[in-house]
Write a structure and sequence with these properties.
alpha/beta; globular; seven-stranded mixed beta sheet; 2 domains; 486 residues; 40% helix
């Protein structure tokens, strides 16, 4: 009898599905099967959406204060999982994503923060706006949009799921969450536990690949598809969603530029700069994808980055010696290996850095060393694409205006960052960049930023926003009432 668990779809409190399962494997030890997962076909997706639609009508009538209390209780449970560390769901997510335990523990804590932040934002975002003059009263109210299909990626599954879960539920919507095929275990187990806090059918979970996503996007009872992922899938969702004129919220990829100015503090800021590019082995949407460094300090900056990366230990995330984990899935790993090969064939100088923790088992997982591309040419594929992995092209520049033009000369527009000792210079340059977000001196949101900063991109990096009142509004629709005085 196999000890490998089977993960089914969770619909209105029941575990459903009998289709042939697919495997989820440990990216650091590909021979290890973590779970057999039963995908949802169109009929099961319909069952989940129909359950959500029935539950949503009742959930929308629950007072906002009670909905908020349930989401806050969910935040407490998520934080309790963070406190358990590897004795709880953190271990599941570490094994399926390949991310380090410290990163996943912080992800659970960040998810708890996100849930609480959305409850706080709801106090403003869901409050009716009332205007009055001598002849009439206008009330602008926000009501829940309805059933939300939340399609979640593999790279930060818990926090990215909660950034859809919390605003949807506090706004009065019901959810059907589609898990990422390579990282469905932690999400499913967490959501099944959180579902106890809500009426049956408010939270539903389905698994699968394109068929399940297409069934959700096409379903007439789904009123919003909230998707985090890549542009190819987003375009397919948008085309399908058009048939029923449903709303979409997309948080997509980027080709985020980082610009170092000549007053950059090399000794102090190199660790933060490297975290901005190589955190989670470069597998996060707003990672630095291309770095522009002034000619006057280029060699010193490059050498300092190389020294920092060469100290990294690449290995299995559960090995305490590891500081740099594997690539999550074989498809992304193969893309990155191809990108490296094509860049070398194009004449680029690539420097691989770091040390394997266990060289004998290197080929058993999706392991690769972090790579710097020295003096990368602007047209190199590694500069113009979204790598989504530990490959960073470093470009030398003389003219800041030319760098701004290069930074903006892409169809992407998610994030950007500026590295300087002069706040005024940083702010002035930030205003010239075409991006949904710009960070100065750290490629991350501060605690204040996580609460108040809209998260999302422009151009082909997204539609709509997550976070704060802006993100919560995505899960509502406007109802305006005009009262004429007698």
């Amino acid at each position: 009898m196999s000890d490998i668990p089977t993960l089914r779809n969770y619909v209105a409190g029941q575990w459903l599905g009998e289709a042939a399962p697919f495997e989820v494997r440990d990216p650091g030890q590909r021979a290890t099967i973590l779970a057999h997962v039963v995908p949802a076909d169109a009929a099961l997706v319909d069952q989940a959406v129909s359950a959500a639609a029935r539950a949503q009508k009742l959930w929308a009538r629950v007072p906002v204060a009670e909905r908020a209390a349930a989401v806050l209780a969910a935040a407490d449970r998520i934080e309790a999982e963070a406190d358990k560390g590897l004795d709880g769901l953190v271990r599941d997510v570490v094994l399926e994503t390949g991310m380090l335990p410290a990163e996943i523990t912080l992800e659970f804590r960040g998810a708890a923060f996100a849930a609480r932040d959305n409850v706080e934002a709801a106090q403003v975002a869901l409050e009716p706006q009332v205007l009055e003059d001598e002849t009439s009263i206008v009330r602008i109210e926000r009501r829940p949009i309805g059933v939300v299909a939340a399609i979640v990626p593999w790279n930060a599954p818990i926090v990215l799921m909660i950034r859809k879960f919390a605003p949807a539920l506090v706004a009065g919507c019901a959810l059907v969450v589609k898990t990422p095929p390579t990282a469905p275990i932690g999400i499913t187990r967490l959501l099944a536990g959180l579902a106890e806090l809500f009426p049956a059918g408010v939270i539903n979970v389905v698994h699968g690949f394109g068929e399940a996503g297409a069934a959700l996007s096409a379903h007439p009872l789904v009123r919003l598809v909230s998707f985090t992922g890549g542009g190819v899938a987003a375009r397919a969702i948008m085309a399908t969603a058009a048939d029923t004129m449903k709303n979409v919220q997309f948080e997509l990829g980027g080709n985020d530029a980082a610009i170092v100015l000549d007053d950059f503090d090399i000794e102090k800021q190199i660790p933060m700069l490297m975290a901005g590019a190589f955190h989670r082995s470069g597998q996060f949407c707003f990672a630095i994808k291309r770095l522009y460094v002034p000619d006057a300090i280029y060699d010193r900056v490059f050498d300092a980055m190389a020294a920092y990366l060469d100290a990294q230990k690449i290995g299995h995330p559960l090995d305490p010696a590891t500081t740099f984990g594997p690539i999550n899935n074989k498809g992304q790993f193969d893309f990155l290996q191809g990108l490296i090969a094509r860049s070398r064939a194009a004449g680029a100088e690539l420097i691989e850095l770091g040390t394997p923790v266990d060289p004998a088992r290197w080929d058993a997982g999706n392991y690769m060393k972090p790579v710097l591309v020295r003096d990368a040419a602007p047209g190199l594929e590694a500069v113009t694409c979204e790598q989504f992995g530990p490959v960073l092209p470093v470009l030398r520049y003389h003219d800041l205006d030319a760098v701004v033009a290069q930074a903006n000369g892409t169809e992407y527009g998610l994030g950007s960052s500026i590295w300087t000792s002069d706040e005024g210079r940083g702010k002035a340059l930030a205003r010239r960049l075409d991006a949904g977000m710009t960070f100065i001196n750290k490629n991350a949101q501060s605690r204040l930023g996580r609460r108040h900063m809209p998260f999302g991109g422009i151009k082909q990096s997204g539609i709509g926003s997550e976070n704060a009142e802006y993100g919560l509004h995505e899960f509502t629709e406007i109802h305006a009432i005009n009262i004429h005085k007698a």
